[in-house]
Amino acid sequence: MTGGGQAKMIADHDNLRQNERHVLHFMKNPMKNRFSNILLFSEGAVVLEVTKHDKSQNTYIHATKIKSKFGNYVLAQSPKPETLLDWFRMIWQLKIRLIVCLIPLDNKDDCAKYFERKVGKKLKHKRFTVRTFAIRTEEAATTYELRITNSDIKRDERILYVLRYPHWKEIVRPPDPRQFLEVIKSAWALEQTAGQSNIDSTSPTLVHGISGTRRTGAFVLTSMLCRQMRERQQLSVVTACSTVRKYRYGVMRNRVCYTVMLEAILRFAAGQGYVNGHSSAFLRALETVRNSITVPEVSDEEDSW
Predict the structure, then answer these.
(1) What's the pLDDT tens digit per position in 154-195?
(2) What is the side-by-side order of every strand in the sheet holding 60-68?
(3) Of the candidates 238, 188, 247, the residue with the CA atom closest to the CA atom of residue 70
(4) How do residues 189-233 score in pLDDT, each as one tens digit?
(5) Quick one: how far is CA 72 from the chain centroid?
(6) Which residues contact 255 (CB under 8 A, 6 or more apart)?
(7) The pLDDT value given to residue 301
(8) Pairing of strands 45-47, 60-68
(9) Which terminus, N or C, of the chain has the lesser number of Cβ atoms within 10 Å?
(10) Average pLDDT in the 16-45 region?
(11) Paired residues of 100 in beta bridges
(12) How far is CA 155 from the centre of its chain?
């Protein structure tokens, strides 16, 4: 074998290794996972830093970092009562300034309470205190302005926004994609308010539903693709979805989520003037996307999560 052939063989093998995914930490922390069938790949996972209060091995949280030219995100499962401290540790460590919550928060089993929904109220958990400073309610979503403090660090009160979108209650009943798109635009505006408009910002946007895969993946990918379209006048739907799926298990496995994303992208393109939103071709494209939901999917029991 020539030197060049050997180098190619080694490069091919290294490439195979790069595509491996590991779940050791997921398997070692069953009590911290909401679902046994929603894996967390070690590749791209958030690793919590240990302070004097934390056990040396307590670094696990079911959350994944996704950073691209078109967005900086953490995709996470909603906190459980027993992982609420980990939730706040992650928020503090990553300097989170915006949380996008894609569930109504009406069912405590879906999400442990991590903030109060009344002005002036506060929630205290271990070394963290979260006070609700202001609330703004709009048709599509409600924005909460919070103040979070850590008793370990004096004189460091941080502003934290929560954008709550309660209208996608059941995964099989898709929301209005136009409304979904407005929530994404609201998130962009809040990122600017919080100083996160620069993609190189060290502060990602934290997005969660329940499992952190279905609604969460639809939101993150729609946001990234709309930004790509706006900045490059092009988009790569399959490439983007495949890339995110490499790091966050279960993203876009549901056809409803995929069609919500596609229609939102189409409507964003029309709103930007890239396509004629009144043309017959555009209307046919919308109809094709919507009709795909009625085609039976292969059952994978995902409605349980």
Answers:
(1) 889 999 999 999 999 998 888 999 999 999 999 999 999 988
(2) 45-47, 60-68, 71-76, 205-208, 98-101, 153-164, 142-150, 128-137, 122-125
(3) 188
(4) 999 998 865 555 679 999 999 999 999 999 999 999 999 999 999
(5) 10
(6) 292, 293, 295, 297
(7) 43
(8) antiparallel
(9) N
(10) 92
(11) 163, 207
(12) 30
Q: Which run of H or E residues covers position 181?
A: helix 177-193
C-alpha angle with apex 166: 163 to 169, nearest 5 degrees?
145
For the chain, list the domains and their CATH numbers.
25-250 (3.90.190.10)
Sign of CA dihedral 102, 80, 60, 247: negative
Please state, as a whole number, how many other Cβ atoms lie within 10 Å of the Cβ of residue 257. Answer: 24
The one-letter amino acid code at 95 reads: K
Note the pLDDT tens digit of each residue in 95-114. 999 999 999 999 999 999 99
Q: How far is CA 134 from the centre of its chain?
A: 24
Q: Residue 207 forms beta bridges with which residues?
A: 75, 100
Q: Which residue has the tokens 């919590």?
A: 48
Answer whether 0.70 is exceeded by the pTM.
yes
Cα–Cα distance between 223 and 120 in angstroms, integer? Answer: 32
Q: Is 100 exposed, middle or buried (0-12, 13-18, 19+ CB in 10 A)?
A: buried
pLDDT score recorded for residue 196: 62
57: nearest Cα among 91, 36, 32, 88: 32
Strands (E), 102-181: 122-125, 128-137, 142-150, 153-164
Amino acid in position 123: L
Q: How far apart are CA 8 and CA 269, in angstroms?
A: 42
